[in-house]
C-alpha cells in the first residue's frame, strides 16, 4: 500500500536543503506502486517525479503530488562474449551502481563516479563527466506513462539523447516514470582517458594495470577536491551547462580573449567552459548573503545557510547577466527550477 503524506516538507529531499512543502508526497518501492499512486492522482494534478533531489531547485511550495522513486536493485544478464547488461532500479543510487560495476571489473561507467543522484534520473539528464556520457553505455530503459498507465520500453534512439538532455527532460517531462535502466558494459579493458585532468592524475601515480576501480577512485578523488559535498553544504553540483557556440562566434571571442578555452563537440562548433566565463566575470567565490559560488568551482552555486530557493535563483540570474554582458553568451541552467 502506498502511503500519501500531505503538507510534506521537502527539505531532506533536495540537496540545496530548501525548506518547501509538497501538497502531497508518496514514496514508491515497487512497480505496482506506480499503478496504485496513479489511481489516487487527479488528472489535472501537477506531478513531480523525484530521485535524490540532487539536480533541482525549489523556489516555492509544490502544489501537487511529489512521487519519490525508491525502486532499487541491480541485476546482470550475459550479452555476448565481451559485454554484459547491467540493469538497475530507478531509485538505486547512481554511485552504488558505479561501485558495483567497478568491483566486478566491468568497464563503461567508471568515469561517472560520485555523480550524485539516482539511476532513474541519469538518462533524463544524460549525465556526463570526465570525457564520458551515459548515452555511451545506454541500452534501454523501462517505465510507465503516467497518463495511460502503460508500461513502455525506450531504446537509445527513442530517448533522443543530447548534451544534458533527453526526451524525458522535454516532451515527457514528469509524464514518464523510469522504473529500470539497462546498460551495456564491457568485460575487456576499455579505459577512457580523454579528459586531461583524469589522465594527469593517473600519470602522477605508479600504475601497473588500469582497472575500472582505480579509475572510479581517481575520479572520486578529483571530484572531492574540486566540488563541495552536498551532504555537508547545500548545492546541486554544476548549476549551468557549458554553452555551445559556432566556430565563427568563437573566433570573434578569441580575438578579444586570447586565452579562452574550448572543447570540440560532435555536432560541430565548440563548447566553452561555463566555469571560465563565470570566473572572468568576477563570480568565482563571490557571495551575497547566504548564497554564492564555490571558491574552487564557480559553476557550483551554494546555499551557505537558511536561504530560499528564490534567493538562489536571483543570484543565478546575476551570473547569467554578467556573462551575457561580457561575452554575449546566455548561460542555460542545468539545474531544474520549480
Low-confidence stretches: none
CATH class of the largest domain: Alpha Beta
CATH topology name of the largest domain, in short, is: Uridine Diphospho-n-acetylenolpyruvylglucosamine Reductase, domain 3
DSSP strand tally? 20
Q: What is the share of helical residues?
A: 25-40%
Number of structural domains: 3
Physical arrangement of strands within the biggest beta sheet: 6-7-12-10-11
Query: What kind of assembly state do the chains in view correspond to?
Result: single chain
Radius of gyration based on Cα positions: 20 Å
Give the integer mean of the pLDDT values.
Answer: 94
Main sheet characteristics: 5 strands, antiparallel
**How far apart lie the N and C ends?**
29 Å
CATH architectural label of the largest domain: 2-Layer Sandwich
Backbone structural class: alpha+beta
Number of helical segments with 4 or more residues: 9
Strand proportion, as a percent range, falls in: 25-35%
Shape: globular
Please trace the helix and strand order, writing H or E for each element. EEHEEEEEHHEEEEHEHHEEHEEHEEEHE
